[in-house]
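S., here's the first fold you wanted:
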Amino acid sequence: MEFILNPYALTLIISSLLVGGLSLFIGLKVEESVRWIVFAMLSFTVWGFFYGLELTAQTVPEMLFWSKLQYIGLLAAPASWLVFALKYTGVDTSNKKWVFPSIFALPILTYIIVLTNTWHHLHYKSNWLITTGPFPLLGIEKGIWYSVQIAFSYVFYFLGTYIIWKRFRYANIHFKLQTRLLIIAGFFPLIINMLYQFSWLKPFEGLDMTPYAFLFTYLFIAVAILRFNLFNLKPVARDKILEVMTRGVIIFDHRNKIIDFNSACKNYFPNPIQVKLGNLAEKIFFDRPEIIDLLNNQERQIIESKVKFSGEESVLKIEAVPISDSKALVSGMMLLFDDITAEIKINERLKKQATELQQLNDLKDKFFSIISHDLKGPVFGVKELIHLTQNGLISEEEFMSMLPEVSKNMEHVAILLENLLAWTSSQLRGEYVQPQILDLNRLVTSQKTLLDRIAVEKSIQIELLGFENSWVKADKNMLELILRNLISNAIKFSNPGSKVVVSNEDLGDMQKLCVKDYGVGISEENLEKLNQGISFTTRGQSNETGTGLGLLLVREYIIKNGGSLSISSTLGEGTKFCISIPKAIQPVSLV
């Protein structure tokens, strides 16, 4: 082959080698998705280099030989550009494995047609030698597939450039610079090629200026990449950083217009569709002026804002971070969103638990003090009485006269011990509730029988009303302790000669059991303490002692059995305790 160099060929060959060398160097520095622009640049290098060699050839066969080699780059370039655009902008093709192979289908088919053109002349109908210019050039008569190749190449270039423009038209200034350069790289050579195709830009017949436009454009892009680290942080990497953040991120420019955001931020908006590039903050936060103020202040601040999602109120922590340029001028604001509803609830729960723990410790100290007195007094009194009787210091008649008082004291000790054991069990290891169907009439009657003797000693009558055919579902031991405490408490605070009324009312799915006494009543202050579950002690009408532990157990056991407690009282008239218990149907076997 004879090579005769000319300025046009030499320019193409040198610029191709320069762009090719820079492309290989850049390819070693950037990551896989950005590396596709390197493949595009190398494709233009192949195109330009072999077109330069074609311009040195002197015969048609030689020119066609170099033409077939240059078509490797000419066809690979638009496909590489489109793949670069898809990967650079982070388009998700994970569920469409066919996308990238299909992009290269037409270029591969076209290259096969170029190689076999002499069989069918689909690409070139005919070729001849143009000798009217300063050096020989290849003349061509275009075949039908030549137009197809031009069409899909233009589509690939335009589509890739549009994808880049659409993704970053509202991006920050760094990505805007990249986008503008890439749009220039996509459109400028195409404009030159269009002028060539319409024969509007030809220094002389047969010379294609398109490879020059591509090579000079990409030489400029290569210098920009190396000089400004243009792809040091590619958008895909930036996207991955944002997307792994669980906090919502929205970035605004100096006009309060959204220029970037991550998908997590949409979880913090009742209407996520409002969050899109280019939207103004005033439009998104029109009903939340505190956020607009946060942006306008242009200072680092943290606020809490309440918002409703599906009828439920959530608390968001919003942090504003100013974005400054190299001159320390605020060019935008970044808002970070975090849902702290659960955190606030946990903190409130911890505060409540801390308060309850303190109350429990106070109650424990109080109980130990009371128990040491209330248990110690009666037990030591019985011990001393036995000791005096054994030594003959007290006669049998005197012992028998003291026995009723001793018996009464021991009744209170027994109730105290029972409550103490139940409370200790519930606090140390919890209570295992074993609900069963119970005959409420039988249960109340048995408790009345147990407490009748204490009532008789105070001339108090216990009345039972409305318990016929009443069945409940509850833990038997717990319900017995509830009834025993309520009735004994009513006896304790009743006036001698009065009565205690224990009644029942059917409420449909619940049984409402009330214990009413006609005694001194409870003051408003103490009634409020009872309704809040705060323990306190008072002495009964006959100076009976107490610990306040019984009512605590009553409240706890009722809740564990799915019921509720209500208390009403009037000073000087009496008190009424009412509990609700889940109703049960009478077992068939017992009908």
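And the second, which I think is the more interesting of the pair:
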Amino acid sequence: MIDHHGGAPAPAPRTTPPGSVVALVDATSPTERDLIGTWLADGGLTTEFGAEAPVTQLDLDAGAIADRLVGRRDDPLVVPVRVLWLPPERDGVRRMTFADIALMTNPRKPNRFAQRRLVRRSPDRHVVLTGQPALLSELRQNNPEASAMLAAGSAEPFARAIVRAAVFALERAERTVIGDRYKVPRLVTEEILDSPEFLRTLELVADRIGADPQEVYRRAERALNELVASQSRLVSDLFTQAMRPVHASTWKVETEESGLDALRKLNRRYPLVFLPSHRSYVDAFVLGDVLARSDFPPNHVIGGANLSFWPMGPIARRTGTIFIRRSFGDDEVYKAVVEEYFAYLLVKRFNLEWYFEGGRTRTGKLRPPRYGLLNYLAAAVRGNRVEDVMLVPVSITYERLNELGAIATEQVGGKKKPEGLAWLARYVRSQQHSAGHVYVRFGAPMSARERLAANGDPLRTPLVSIPLHRTDTARVEAVPTATDDATAELERKAVQRLAFEIAVGINAVTPVTVNALATLALLGVHERALTLGEVRTLLAPVLGYIDKRGLPSGELAALRDEQSLAVVLEQLSLAKVVTVYRGGLEPVYSIESGAHLEAAFYRNSAVHWFINRAILELSIIAAAELPERDELSAGWDEAYRLRDLLKFDFFFPDRAEFAAQLTAEMLLVDPEWHNHTRRDTFGNDVVEKLSASGFMMAHRVLRSFVDAQLVVAERLAAHDPAAELDRKQFLEECVAVGKQMLLQQRLHSPESVSTELFTSALKLADNYDLVAPCDPESAEQCAESIRRRNEFAEELRTLGARISRAAALDPSNRLEQRR
């Protein structure tokens, strides 16, 4: 059955009128039965299916269908029928409010007394709805395994399949009236557990783990009941109504409608998977509201079980949130259930959403991706469970964020407060302050099948699609993923490259905000306050650079005149990120004491746009320090070394594209670069041009990351090379020693003392084979380990000195020296 409704496009007309019609009546009360009966008696089906066709009414119930329909020898046309109740129209939209709840009835599911009253007083509040019909023979054809069981004497499986098909057709028909934003799944657990393919999977799992098949089935049923999001239109309406005012008073949401129009067209054929950046707990509310206003069906949002506390957990599940365990361990049954449920949602073309960084960023920039859920998606595509999936990178960027204090505390070793009722109360209270704009940007959608193949995944060619009436999707034969080690490695790398491309897609549409630039300016001057004019002078060449590159941006015009710039800084002062001293001749601005991590959070949301400029500066300085070498070659060597040193903090393209990007940066500094004849002595000449450009970025962009790497490198050098490293304890040590180094002014800013930055630095050291213990029986091996650790620390000290030279070349710091 494929749905339709009177106002929706009708299917192609049948060339032969049916001999008889069976109306499967989905009624919950005598009033609904009367309405449907009257509608049928008045010829509701006659005009569509022919006046000669007698109509038999049958309850939409598996038992009744098994007794009176599945065994029929003729070929009736089966039509599902239901009464759809509508809320009153409010501001041009039919939706529910808390006022409806006060009347003790759900306007989408009114009680029997309310139904009678509505029929008398508000006849526009109900519609008799039909789903697209199917001949009984077509239903048998579309459910071959259930039909085979019918031939063997068991009618129940085929009857349940007809019920599911009818419910799906009616649900789709409803959406032609109420809109796609109310697309919700029904009978999910039942359909998955009735799937012969999934039952065979459970049998294989039972055999593999040596468990009783019935026990494995029961465990799978419990896991499904734990996972499946039971969406409710009532709860969705009320939850949106409750949360929208909280966030509407905090942010002005800005999005691009053109991107949504293109996505809506794609969604008619493919499921969409939205993969947003994750900076706040509010991300899902903001994105959900943007999509709901544009009549997208609700996303199934995949989240961690830490947010499933009462009352948020039960409410969130009824608005589409799927709570997945943080760790599956060796639970093969749970893994099989998650993979099947994931594939089911994609096959049914339900849209998904998850935050593939694994959690909120603590630094403001995009975190390295997690691959778990992408692996399930790739498995569905490889197995031809779904024709394709469109991956949508989404950037959600806040001008200000009211929860930054807690994030900063966690950065310096503070414990994260567990989510619960007290946390929820604090969260709602924190949203009472205006925080400017939030920018929601959608990156170019990616075909999962195309990108996996391009990244080396040995995908199988999908089979030809066969339309199914019962699902309106393609029937495809499951092709198992190869299990040999070589193929598994190709698949693993393809998923990692795909995740990298998604991250690049998010960064590509992340705008530069006013607060990102304001904090970038103030963090770049060491322990010094700036006047309003100095801030404006410092930002002017950076704004010109942004214009030249055509970078996406927020309301940056506010930074071009002193009055608007003063408002930006005052707002940061109210957020306790910037401090203002007014006791002198004019106000001066600096980063609030103890707020460097919060300021860095804003700066880092845009820092990826300036990373190549910073690398170029350091490469040129390194080349100028090595005049005995070919300076151009030395500069490129340094650029590639920096790219490798920062690979766990930023997303870099391959060497060829990176070289092209760096050349483009060079041309912005020196447009005549390609016309130079002497490339062996370019260093000092270009250093002058860098300084003349009006700004330097290396100390503003890279210093905190390099300083954090230095802390990790020095602590590694101080550790016994033969001892196994306790990573948690080591990171705590880095925080403690980092604070001491900061007091000794060996580090330049508190933002360097960050567990997030130390974690990335430790990954880098591990990648350089500096973490694994040496063989205590081999003095030579341990001596080599000590040498390499000390060499790594010295390399970072040299890099730090070059960053200090870049800082000294910055016009704002040269001004300080002149004074």
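Why I say that: Residues 146 and 158 are 5 Å apart (CA to CA). The longest helix spans residues 779-809.

Talk tomorrow,
H.
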